[in-house]
Amino acid sequence: MATPRLHRRTQGEEEDASVLRLGPGMGIRSYQMNNSLTKDEHKEFNNAGCLLISEVKYLLENRDKDAPDTAYVCTISLDVPGIRCISIYLTVWSWNTNSVYNKTLEYVKQFAKFTTTDSASAVRETLRREPQLTQFETAQIANLCPADAEESKSIIPSLVKVDDDRLQALLDEIQTMRKFQS
Q1: What is the structure's pLDDT at 14?
Q2: Both 135 and 172 in a single domain?
Q3: Domain that residue 150 falls in
Q4: Is residue 14 part of a domain?
Q5: Domain RNA polymerase Rpb4/RPC9 core: where (predicted)?
Q6: Cα of 51 vs its chain's centroid, Å
Q7: CATH number for the domain that contains residue 138
Q8: What's the alpha-carbon Rg for the chain, to the nearest Å?
Q9: 18 inside domain
């Protein structure tokens, strides 16, 4: 099996998280290095939305209930406000014995911040109302649930554009939703 060639970064590829330029490892190029699909076949992912870990947990758990031990290509869809409908295409071979699936499910169960789809949707809708936030920032805030504006700006540098008081109000609202989720 051929290994991917390393390439030197040019001046124009410098990473800068404060403007969401996250480097070559965060895009389609890194995925292509390990897969046989061409760049044209990946175009549908260029403008793909970001899912919350809680939403991924819901998708995986429901897929597991629908067909626990079958082998076929399946589509899982979740209607997320602002992103229309998200479809995930999976090729499933002995679904319950797939180690990648099991590790992914274990991960999302451990790190999901919201226990119900209603609470995850409410958080997404709350953050979506803030026009300055990108989908990436929305997902990061919901996945990490920082306690205050200072913490959120230190872990998500691109949030410097958002006023501290407005950001703190959003974070407080999310913490309240998290506390009272059923």
Answers
A1: 72
A2: yes
A3: 117-179
A4: no
A5: 43-181
A6: 4
A7: 1.20.1250.40
A8: 18
A9: no
8 within domain boundaries: no
* Per-residue model confidence as pLDDT tens digits over 96-111: 557 888 899 999 999 9
User: In this structure, are 169 and 138 located in the same domain?
Assistant: yes
Taking a C-beta distance cutoff of 8 angstroms, is the pair 24, 9 a contact?
A: yes
Higher pLDDT, 102 or 175: 175
Helix extents (H) in 91-163: 99-111, 117-128, 135-144, 149-155
Quote the number of domains for the chain: 2
Instruction: Take residue 102 and report the two structure tokens written for it.
Output: 């099991």
* 145 Rama sector, left if φ>0, alpha if ψ -120 to 50, beta otherwise: left
Q: How far, CA to CA in Å, does 151 sit from each of 144, 156, 159?
A: 10, 8, 10
Q: What is the pLDDT of residues 27-63, one digit of tens each?
A: 444 344 444 445 555 455 556 688 999 999 998 888 7
